[in-house]
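Subject: for your reference before the review

Hello V.,

The reviewers asked for a structural picture of the protein, and I figured it would be easier to keep everything in one thread rather than splitting it across files. Below is the amino acid sequence we used in the manuscript, unchanged from the supplementary table.
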Amino acid sequence: MQAEPTFWSQLWRSVRLLGFAFVATAGLGAMMEERGLGRGVLHNPDLRPLTEGATRFEDVKGVDEAKAELEEVVDFLRDPTRFTHLGGKLPKGVLLVGPPGTGKTMLARAIAGEAGVPFFYASGSEFEEMFVGVGARRVRDLFAAAKRAAPCIVFIDEIDAIGGKRNPKDQHYMKMTLNQLLVELDGFRPSEGVIVVAATNFPESLDKALVRPGRFDRHVVVPNPDIEGRVAILQAHFKAIPLAPDADLRALAKTTPGCSGADLANIANAAALKASRDQKAAVDAAALEHARDRVLMGNERRSAALSEAARRLTAYHEGGHALVALFTEGADPVHKATVIPRGVALGMVMQLPDEEHMQTRKQLLAMLDVCMGGRVAEEIVFGRGNVSTGASSDLDRATQIAEAMVTRYGMSDALGAMALHAPKVSATTRAAVEEEVKSILGQAYGRAKSLLQRHEK
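And here is what came back from the structure prediction:
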């Protein structure tokens, strides 16, 4: 009679089966990679640079400071001896930092276009692979091809996909890919003419070893454009689009603060489509306004069936936001209020902030008051028992602002001027933070209620 297998023997058998499956999978992946069957594009030792039309600095609008800083890289690629005869060394890596859609990829292409050198493009996600060693090999192939084509530009988009901060829980293949990238950055001399340019939206997430001196040690900020930059970008996009006499691009630029170059390109395209649908010969002011509102506020949902009661409640809710914004010092000016459903919202109040790069405590408190205005108006008109769920996004935003005031900006009277980022704080401190956030929001609610009651008719 055969003995029953013990628990430990069954466990050991399962471990062996899993180990065999892992080794077989890794071997299959390596074989596929060798034969060019992997999903990535960087396995080819004959990797070629992009051959599309050259981009020049004059094609990139709204980022003049970034272009000026990158001119040095272009000059180096054109004449390396000009920089090296005195012993100077240009950074091996240039990190372009900025929000999405600001033109980081175009800037990298423009460096290559201005210098007249090959341009290699890779996305950080292309290096990701579950098979051990595959990502590292793709890094080696890319840099080997770049060295053969030097002088050249190697551009790695979304480098945070492979260059994020390491921790013990990372998979081994992820560490291997980043380690290989570090080795390649250390493995060539600046005089070889290979300049590595990378882009990220989250520089704080990058591993410190990647951004230390000698690797990606030069950071170039690529922010959203200011008003003059937006005018230049809009003029570039409307260069081939006819404009009616009443279409004012500068006026449009004034009403799009915080928009990226990609947002403005979307507005230009939406305006052209709107004018075409309306069978107009040129884009007029109405088409520009429609396109801006569609991009910034969402598409109109005129078919949304709202009852008269829901429409009335939405009108008072949005009116509360607008009135608080109008009568609160420090609040951004109101540009438009609508009860036509747009996107997921049943109504909306659009404000136009000034071209400022920082906000005062007064402005943040005004933002909180405006956020509370909609819920307060519902309570005053319909009673506390009939307030709606329409204020959910307002409360989310208000809570985020209040928490930032307490934990990041040091604007709390109770907790003082100190940074209180989790998870560094204790449970007691976290409870105090939540109590202070609740107090700030309660005060904002009270100010909004007092203001609307004073102007109630």
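For the response letter, the relevant points are probably these. Confidence is low (pLDDT under 50) at residues 32-43. The longest helix spans residues 7-34.

Happy to draft the paragraph if you're swamped.

O.
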